[in-house]
Amino acid sequence: MSPEKSQLRSDAAQNRDRILAVARELFASRGIDVQMATIARRAGVGVATLYRRFPTKESLVAEVFEDQFRTCVASMDEALADPDPWRGLCRAVEKICAMQAVDRGFGAAFLASFPAAVDIERERDRAVREVSVLVERAKQTGQLRADFVPEDLTLLLMANNGIVADTPEATLAASRRLVAYLLNSFRAEHAGPLPPPVSIDLRNVLP
């Protein structure tokens, strides 16, 4: 490869990394509604360059949040590996909700579905299956209320995503308190009558 071509590839890689870094920062602070032109300007590249690297907004979001998504899925794997299903469930919920609270962009992506991201779709489906298994295991131990359904986790994540506070620290603190309240209500010992469950697909909440 000629030095010129090598330099071009290096420049392209640097542009891509800079775009991702800027997008991650802007999504975290403003959410995923940030305009592509704003991302390009902040990254110091032309809009055409941005679209050559990421043809759609969805492809950019999927790339930016891939690491967080993998962490989310890994938290479910860890929960299943925990010999105490209730403890595993609580830790997974706490971890995912904390991620959602400190990164508003991730929270928005968490509530989005991008069909073009095939690998993410496959991992999302696996996470949904793992949630169902974990819920059943926690019920069998007698720690999780018998009328709990996976859609209740969807409600929890939607509620957590709606927290608004003055600072990221306050948002995280509010999230932790909300999650503690709700996890406490999931305990079998606190089980009182509930309205019928709501049909909300967990796939609409997982990244």
Q: What does this entry look like structurally?
A:
It is built from ten helices and no strands. With 207 residues, it is mostly helical. The protein folds into two domains: 62 residues, Orthogonal Bundle (Tetracycline Repressor, domain 2), CATH 1.10.357.10; 139 residues, Tetracycline Repressor, domain 2, CATH 1.10.357. It starts with a helix and ends in a 21-residue tail after the last helix.
Brief overview:
The chain is built from ten helices and no strands.
Tally of domains:
2
Question: Which secondary-structure class do the elements indicate?
Answer: mainly alpha
Note the gap between the termini.
39 Å
Sheet having the most strands? none
**DSSP strand count:** 0
Shape: elongated
SSE pattern:
HHHHHHHHHH
**Fraction of residues in helix:** over 70%
Task: Give start-end ranges of low-pLDDT stretches.
Answer: 1-5, 113-118
- What's the CATH C level of the largest domain? Mainly Alpha
- CATH third-tier fold name of the largest domain: Tetracycline Repressor, domain 2
Average pLDDT: 80
- The amount of beta strand, in percent, is under 5%
Tally of contiguous helical segments: 10
CATH architecture of the largest domain: Orthogonal Bundle
As a whole number of angstroms, the C-alpha radius of gyration is: 20 Å
Task: For this entry, give a set of tags.
207 residues, mainly alpha, Tetracycline Repressor, domain 2, 0% strand, disordered N terminus, transcription cis-regulatory region binding, Homeodomain-like_sf, HTH_TetR
